[in-house]
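User: I'm curious whether this sequence folds into something compact or stays loose and floppy. Could you predict its structure so I can see for myself?
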Amino acid sequence: MDITLFLTHCLLNAHLGHLYWMQYVLIVGILIATASCTILAYALGTNVSNVPGTHAVHPTTIQIERAVHVEDTPSIDRAGDAEFNSRLMIDNDYMDSTNSCEFCNKIEYTPGAVGKAGIAYRNDKLDLEGNQRIVFFARGQQGGEEVSFIAIGRSISGQKINDEDLFPNGDFAITTKNVTLQNDWKRYEISLNKTKLEDVTLPFGFVITDNESPKQIFYLKGVTFDRKLAQNPLPTVDTKISNATNK
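Assistant: Here's the prediction. I'll summarize afterward.
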């Protein structure tokens, strides 16, 4: 009888010990899960710019005020040979890491009857007041491609002041002289001095001219506006002054 009671007592203690062990494991698991959640919440709530060894992201002025890079705008106006898509093709997400072309614009122009092709990037009405320059990067496939750049355009209807413009429904305050591209990236600037910058619907574009090559290819990226003064801006073509575009 005493042996039976002794065995029963041992079994009962073993069972209780197993229960205590399971409770211990459960408590430890809860503590670990709580600590993990706390660490994760702290990490997500921490400003990365304040952590040593990290780099904060600094958006450009144009990104803060409204837009991303202008050339990423999906809507475009076509003029000249570019009215035929087969004559001027644009790859907005072109990748070529060996030539520092990550998601840049690749433009392929096959000359037609007009002898030049124009693209204007379209946006909603933008108020760009306060900005003093446009900055962008361009390079040619071979070098020798002839391109001029247009900026600060507005949609119009009716008779244009300058009938020689390639775009029948756009009036641009700025047109640069032709730029002969090189086969490596160059940084260019356009001054916005003394230019009316409200209600802009065609902030930037280009016109590529036939240089007697069967096909011309060039690349464009990083078109942004900012409030700094232009340094060595591209020379511009004198155009008739329009009340819609200049102050």
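Summary: Residues 134 and 225 are 5 Å apart (CA to CA). Residues 61-226 form a domain with the Jelly Rolls fold (CATH 2.60.120.260).
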